[in-house]
Specification:
The protein is α/β, with parallel strands linked by helices. 37% of the residues lie in helices and 14% in strands. Helix 4 packs parallel to helix 5. The radius of gyration is 24 Å and the shape is elongated.
Length: 390
């Protein structure tokens, strides 16, 4: 799949951070011109990746000191640390709209080697990042505080409803304004100057919200938020005040070297004894079944579990029907996929396969009205086993 390279929204000159008593007006380093990267098929499981650039050139572009082995030798800025982590988890593009609170942060993101894709508003940035996350595994957008974050909120809520991993990076006023009542309310803040309002608004539609108020805690907070995003497959908000974005990320170089994102434990908390007992019970039901059936939903695709479902189907020698949302979770037209189950609207053979089963294993299917409004599953005669979040 080849796509035209996005046009960079980078301003021509190195910007200055806005004048503020708590923020030194220090110019940010220039970024060398970006090559016209071509999106090519990736080898790591994602559908596309950036061909040009290496971690070394990205770090040099960000003004980060490298050791002899190519690792980051000195602590990068908090903004650069966040950008490097985004690259590690697979978000090589960031969609967004620059704003005064996020200008410095945008420059650090671009300088670290992340491709900036400008959008006409923040809602579009959130929807674009949602689509990117569905294809590549995780999406990211960058907005300014308040007016930008609230504009993106509907798109983030949609990603939460669909279980899409999405990182919202928001610039913010200087951290001192969070700790004391300012003499004047920062612009874009709600009346009264409550700077926690944006994070509280995002809380119901995110797996985590991180407001980075202290550079010493920033690396751990960034990593925790990204782990929550990936493990729960849900959006997160990372809010970065202007002064914190430009400050050195204490311990960041060591974490990048010693705790790469590839080594993170993304498993959800679980009781191993309960899991073993449940698996034994499911196996016993399947062994005693006369008409078992498998039904796969959209989570099979979102969790990249297609290979495991195919393996299970071959072990049981059963075809797999899919829900409407789960359509194309398994390749169609072969011996594995039985067709799409949509209740009374199903093809007769697919409806009979699912509804006449005595044991039905439902894998990763959300119990929504679109998938089940016309379903006529009789739980009195069919034992239904749900696997996943549905």
């Amino acid at each position: 799949r080849r796509l035209p390279p996005p046009r960079s929204a980078r301003p021509p000159a190195a910007p200055m951070l806005p004048d503020h008593p708590d923020v030194p007006a220090t110019p940010l380093p220039h970024q060398p011109p970006h090559p016209r990267d071509v999106l090519v098929p990736a080898q790591s499981g994602a559908d596309f990746t950036v061909a040009a650039g290496t971690p070394g050139t990205r770090a040099r572009a960000a003004g980060t000191t490298l050791g002899a082995n190519g690792n980051v030798a000195a602590d990068p800025s908090v903004g650069t640390y966040l950008a490097l982590r985004l690259l590690e988890v697979g978000a090589s593009h960031v969609f967004g709209v620059p704003g005064d609170y996020s200008l410095g942060l945008c420059d650090m993101i671009i300088g670290a080697g992340v491709r900036w894709v400008g959008t006409c508003n923040e809602l579009n940035a959130a929807y674009a990042a949602d689509a990117y996350g569905r294809i590549s595994g995780v999406g990211a957008c960058c907005v300014t505080y308040g007016v930008g974050g609230f504009s993106a909120l509907n798109g983030v809520a949609g990603a939460h409803a669909e279980g899409v991993p999405l990182v919202v990076v928001s610039g913010a006023p200087a951290s001192a304004a969070y700790f004391r009542k300012p003499r004047v309310v920062p612009h874009h803040a709600l009346l009264g100057g409550d700077l926690t309002a944006q994070a509280r608004a995002f809380a119901p539609v995110t797996a985590a919200t991180a407001v980075l108020l202290r550079p010493g805690d920033a690396a751990e907070a960034v990593d925790a938020a990204l782990r929550a995003c990936l493990s729960a497959s849900l959006p997160v908000l990372i809010e970065v005040p202007m002064d914190v974005a430009a400050a050195p990320c204490v311990g960041g170089a060591a974490r990048l070297r010693d705790l790469p994102a590839s080594a993170w434990d993304l498993s959800l908390p679980h009781n191993p004894h309960a899991c073993t007992a449940a698996l034994d019970r499911v196996a016993a039901l399947l062994l005693g079944s006369e008409r078992p059936a498998l039904l796969a939903g959209v989570e099979v695709h979102r969790r990249h579990a297609q290979a495991n479902v195919r393996r299970l189907a071959r072990m049981l020698r059963l075809p797999v029907a899919t829900t409407r949302h789960g359509k194309t979770a398994l390749e169609e037209g072969g011996t594995v996929c039985a067709g799409v189950y949509q209740g009374a609207l199903s093809e007769p053979r697919v409806r009979a396969y699912v509804e006449e089963a005595d044991v039905l294993v439902v894998i990763g299917a959300a119990r929504t009205d679109i998938d089940y409004v016309t379903a006529t599953l009789d739980e009195a005669k069919t034992t239904i086993i749900h696997i996943g979040n549905g």
